[in-house]
Amino acid sequence: PYTTLFRSASAAIQRRALTVTGPLALYGGEPGIVARVPVFQRGRDGRDAFWGFVAVSMRLSEALGRARVDDLARHGYNYLLFAPAAGREKGVTIAARGALAARNAVQQTVRVHDLEFRLLLQPRSGWINRTKLALEALGVLIVSGLICLLVNLLEGRRSVEAALAWAEELAVEKS
User: Fold this and answer.
1) What burial class does residue 136 get, using C-beta atoms within 10 Å of its C-beta: 0-12 exposed, 13-18 middle, 19+ buried?
2) Fewest CB atoms within 10 A around its CB: which of 16, 29, 40, 154?
3) What is the pTM of this model?
4) How many CA atoms lie within 13 A of 41 on its CB side?
5) DSSP-based three-state secondary structure for 56
């Protein structure tokens, strides 16, 4: 964990820009993220010298609450939010709800400044609602059957009209 903090702090100083690090264990062991901005002070010689950091940390539970990740479960989705493995570090699960088959889930990259997370998402009942599919298929079969019946009736009417016309011609010829 200290090497990650050191690398992030060094990167912030070198880039002279905001860096975000995490997930990592905050004070008390709870996972979180740390954002830091390096502060430089101009010396009498006119050169900038590193002075220190302005830093803020946030518990992941608070960040997930603000992002309303739990709403996914309330809307019927199973999910897995994780930080992928980077270099020698292992991937870290941030939040998960329900059983998830990675091959059936959609995956979205979520960026928080220079951090990358991945969200796998899948409807709890699957992508295909079998009941709805069965009802739609039944509806298509019924409509197709009705169309076939109508075509059959129209063809039968034409046959009857043709037979009547032929019978009238025969009757006219005999009389």
Assistant:
1) exposed
2) 29
3) 0.64
4) 5
5) strand
